[in-house]
Amino acid sequence: MSFLSELLDSNKELKGISVLADIPTYEEAVLSTGLLPLDIAWGGGVQRGRIYTMYAPKSAGKTTLAFTIAASWQKEFPKGIVCVIESERALDPIRCKIMGLDPERVAVNHTLCLEDAFDYMKDFGKTVFDKYGMDAPVLFIWDSWSTCTAKTIIESENIWAGGMQLDARQTTQGLKKLNAQLADTQHAAIIIQHVQDGGTDRNGNQLYTTSNIQALKHYPSAIVELSRSGSQDDQIYRDPVTKKDKIGTVVRVKLVKNKLTGMDDRTVELVMYMATGFNREESTIRYLETGNCNKYFQVGGGGNYTLLNHKEEEYKKVRGKDALKELLKTDKYFLTLIEYAGYKHYADSEPLFAEKYAQKLKNLEDRLNNLLLDSVK
To answer: 279, 305, 338 — which closes off a domain?
Structure first.
């Protein structure tokens, strides 16, 4: 124990002060998003006690990604609760169940009022915390902030009263209180925003504009931007030959801001089906095929794949994408190896992160050795 720790322990009146060395690192306190490529880009996943925002144009996968994270939240915590502030009134319980959510642990509130949404998160979060403490963390999903407005505007006969200035003031005050509460209760919140068409740039690429309310940019620990791929090759059809009846697409997920790791502007591509949400195995295969794991994953002719272990020795040969999907569902060693390769790539390409990920890479390497040994037995 350092002299500073002894000083703080011996003076109980010094409340709210911690020694930096005693605070868990981000990597030690994260929760998987349920999508391995996104976990690697995010630096591990989401963390309790934080605010996150997602924005995208329509039908880009904002709600689907939020519910994918929510399913992982419930899986991680036996008493984990998901609370949806559902101002769009478009929640489909059957689709949520298909994506892995337990409807018995999902609370829903319908409101179009900013103040009511913030009050509901405060009251519900406090009620759960007082009853169950840290054992029942709540993940709030506000879908969406863009469809809510200040109570004064709703109640006013003049629909233009207050406008964006009033929305901005109420959002700023609400986020200040929410941020403090989440820090105490270790709940978390995902706030979803819509974006507006911003025309095109000189190269013809679509541009979008987000809300100019600065609080939605300052308070979140991470800001996630989603966009659908415009490439015809990235669309998924029920009949690939005739290209009719589209059932899925590739979604680009960009971490515009990641305050906890400093890994801004990381982008991954995920496979999303309209009926069932993001496909974990196909998203991981796309991550592999785009060259993120070339050292351990080799694509051969005729749909053959050669997998190497972390010692760069042949591990397995797989024929066909369907067989590779099955492998990714069950093979803990290879999933761990993909995670190891992703962090190793960041550590090797950016010296700033070499020391940051040194312990994580060592832990992953120890796990790989144990898993490889078990597979030989």
So the answer is: 279
